[in-house]
Amino acid sequence: MGECFVPEWDVPANVRALQTTRNGGGSTAPWASFNLGDHVGDDPAAVAANRAQLSSLLPAEPHWLTQVHGTVAVDAEKMPKTATADAAFARQAGHVCAVMTADCLPVLFCDRRGTVVAAAHAGWRGLLAGVLESTVDAMKVPPRDLLVWLGPAIGPHCFEVGDEVRHAFVARDAAAGSGFVPGEPGKWLCDIYLLARQRLNTLGVQSVSGGAACTVSETERYFSYRRDGVTGRMASLIWLESEAQGV
Description:
Elements: E1 4-5, E2 15-20, H1 44-55, E3 65-66, E4 73-75, E5 83-84, E6 87-90, E7 97-101, E8 105-111, E9 117-122, H2 124-129, H3 131-139, E10 146-150, E11 160-162, H4 163-172, E12 180-182, E13 187-190, H5 192-203, E14 207-210, H6 225-228, E15 234-240
Parallel strand pairs: 3-5, 4-6, 10-14
Antiparallel strand pairs: 1-2, 2-15, 6-9, 7-15, 8-9, 8-10, 11-13, 12-13
C-alpha cells in the first residue's frame, strides 16, 4: 500500500490532510514506487493503480491540477476533471484538493473554524509570482484565521539558484535577502521555506507549521527532480470531512 503520513499541525476536527511519500506503490525505476504523476513518463497503468490506492484512503478522487508554476487558484467544487492551475480550494465536504511535487513546495491551508481548505503548489516561480497570495485571497477569510502547513520541499542546503532568482525576490521585498546564502560565484543557496513564511507573515498569516523536510537529501522517502531528473511525484492533499458545526 502506498505510504502516506498525516501532517502535524493543530487543525479543526473536520479537516483532514495526507502527504504521500515515494514508497509502497507499483511503479518501477526511475519512478519507484508510489508515483502519482501521469506526466513524467511512467507506465500509465502503474500510475492509475497508484492513484487508485490513494483514492481508497480518501472520500473521493482528488481534484488533480495541471500545474504550470502560475498563480491561479480554482474552486475544486466547480472545476472539471482537471484544470490548469497551481492551487485549489473547497468549502464543501468531500472535495479533495491536491497538488503534486518533487522539490517544489506544497502548501496546505485551512481556517480555524474548519469552513474552507486549500492546497497550493509553490515552486520558486509561483512563490515569486504570488501563488500563496492568490490562494489566501480565494479562501475569503481573514489571514489571521488561517492555519498553514509547509510540506516536503527542497531544503535550504540543497537549493542552489542563480543571481537572477535572488534579485527577483529582493526586488519584490528587500527582506527576502535573508533567504539566500552565498555559494559559488553567482550562486546562492535558497531557503524556500523561509521565503514562503515571509510571504505568509506579510499577508497576516500567523500560524505556519512544517517546513523541516528536504526532498533532495531524504532519498529513501521523497522524490526529487533536482536530484534525479526523471522521477515520480508525491501528492499533498486536504479536504473537509464534514461541514463545520456552529458556523
